[in-house]
Fold:
Amino acid sequence: MEDMIYELHARMCQVFTSPKRLEILNLLRDKELSVNEIASAANIPQANLSQHLSIMREKGIVKTRREGVIIYYSLANPKIIQAFDIIREILLDKLAQIEEMSKELHNI
Structure:
């Protein structure tokens, strides 16, 4: 069972290897958006966006809702944003440490 969880975890994390998918994730953080709205906000051609959204849907990160010909995307589980925010905080802390070390080296 533990091995299966590690495998699923690794597969889900593959979604987060693309900066554009991370941007899409952030755009969907608290709202549902249509494909056109996401494409416009993220400045991604619709063909590329469709590929990203397909991967994210396949991995269970986003879900869809159809209204006529318009497809809306939203997060499948809001806990995804909690993980996103934690990693982002860690990275900001790391950048602050690097900046502090740079200042210290500059003062030597």
Observations:
- The domain at 2-76 is CATH 1.10.10.10 (Arc Repressor Mutant, subunit A).
- The chain has a mean pLDDT of 92.
- The longest helix spans residues 79-106.
- The radius of gyration is 17 Å.
